[in-house]
Design goal:
Layout lengths: L2 H24 L2 H8 L1 H15 L7 H21 L4 H20 L8 H38 L1
Helix pairs in contact: 1-6, 2-3, 2-6, 3-6, 4-5, 4-6, 5-6
Amino acid sequence: MGKKLSTAIKVATITVPAALSIIQKYGPGIRKVMHDNPELVETVKDRFQKVVKPSRAGGGVTSLDARIDTLKDQVASLYASANTPAVAEQAKQWRRELDSLSQAAPILNAMGKKARRLETRRIEQRIDELSRKILAARVGDDIEDAIIVDE
């Protein structure tokens, strides 16, 4: 599989589930919110780009660190703008997990080739899963903020 195709697949595995989650939660009303708030469309695009861009940065510990740092920034923003205590608590939980992954990444260089490949894949899969959840929560929070402003 070519590098461009594998990158496109990687991007799709992060963005499509996040987008579907948002559509399921906000349904047909999302079109009106987006129409009434053109700046929200740009904000959503920016969120997707911030989360997806580091996932295309190649491999290795540096790439993992970049992805984790990006997600930490998203979680910090989500925590700061949380509309409910549940969202704030979820953001704190994600931050703890990201900190744990961040501490695990440098250890990869000390592992043998096979063990490093397996552990890197495991960490990448967890980061992908967190990316989907955090992106959906962050964009959902943006949409809720726009709905509140419209009311």
